[in-house]
Amino acid sequence: MTSEFDGVLTAWDDLALEKITALISRKAVVGEGQTLAQVYLKRGALVPLHAHDGEELIYVLEGVLGLRLAGDDVVVREGEVVRVPGRAPHQIEALADTFALAARGTTPRRTEQGGGRRPDADAAKCDG
Description:
Elements: E1 18-19, E2 24-30, E3 34-41, E4 46-51, E5 56-62, E6 64-69, E7 72-77, E8 81-84, E9 90-94, E10 98-105, E11 111-112
């Protein structure tokens, strides 16, 4: 029997932990059209208002996130998944130390609201 496996196998434990800011770090696998990220946010971490071309799914494994989306504030708790529609501006704040998985379509760069510059210290380009 021949195998036609044409993928790439990655051991999650072998991925480096990328420090985005003092309060946010992640591990990520970036494919041709998708990104899967395991994100660690310390209480008070802020991901500034931004949008992605494709939709994003965020699954909170531990902790609590505050999400501002379309003018609404939503609290996403442990065991809950939120779907952020493509191109919808959203902002995320860690209301507690939080561990989450985020999956989204890969885009060349994230669109930041208000100028597109990378935010300072406690804001992040995290996939969340």
